[in-house]
Amino acid sequence: MPSKSRTDFRSTAPGDPHRRELVGDTEGSEPSGDAAGSKPAPGLYLVPTPIGNMRDITLRALDILQHVDLIACEDTRVTGRLLDHYGVPTPVTPYHEHNARRVRPELLRRLAAGASIALVSDAGTPLISDPGYRFVREATDAGYPVTALPGPSAALAALTASALPPDRFLFIGFPPPRASARLQAFQEIAQVRASIVAFESARRLTGCLNDMREALGEREAVVARELTKRFEELRRGTLADLARHYAQAGPPKGEVAIVVGPPGDRQPPGDGVIDGLLREAIQGRSLRDAVDIVAERLALPRRAVYERALAMKPGAMKPGQRR
Ligand code: SAM
Question: Which CATH number fits domain 154-260: 2.40.50.140, 3.40.50.150, 3.90.78.10, 3.30.950.10?
Fold first, then answer.
């Protein structure tokens, strides 16, 4: 039974007085193969769905979902709730990482037979840390049209709300869960002059922020939690501030994305500066503490300072020795 809150998006069907405005009839804005209220042309449609707020779905997305022959989705129960909410009766079939190899050939056969198929994930934009890449690749290789609808994605929502530079950004999805691989993954991108957007589980957030701090050096960052939902929160600070906060407060509730600002514009300090500070810092301290102090002071990745310490002449870094 349709719920009371259900939106009748079929009001955008032909004959609706608003239709021309909704679809857009200005030069160059004709919809690609899926005019409002009509059956879409055969092919694969990538349809983003809300990341928390049920109303974050486009009219075109609803139109496509309503009129395609089949919706392939990660979890039929999750997508079923969305379809119920909007009164969409289209049949669904599961397509997720565990059955994709088996199901994909059948979906490609349906495309070959002239079907229109929408691909959705549980939330957000399909393919973005979600299934669908191989399907798009194989559909494209086989010559079937693939149409991406723009819509919600936690990555772009986090980036644009972060107040960190959005002009160049690197989306890295989920960092590796194991600490050593994660640290290495961050070291590999430490020199990239762009903001970084990452997904992370709340449970691994503190470890991830610590590793970012160590590999990328101190930078401004934002943890975007529960975007578009009731307890939406954007927590800003340096990577060290944020790591400290979550170490004390414990893992946050809900879903989080991390945005890290680009490396600063200043010139990196020369080896002479690092060496001088290391020599001072080592007095009465362990090598480890000295490296921490210098890395913090110069906002450099800890590893870079440590490598410099190792490269210095033997004897130059003896604790307690003044030169
Ligand atoms: N394809 C989705 C998209 O485009 O948003 C992302 C799917 S990925 C499996 C799920 C991850 O996205 C979560 O673990 C979290 O890192 C992030 N995420 C999803 N929804 C979020 C939200 N409402 N607020 C913050 N992060 C979110």
Answer: 3.30.950.10
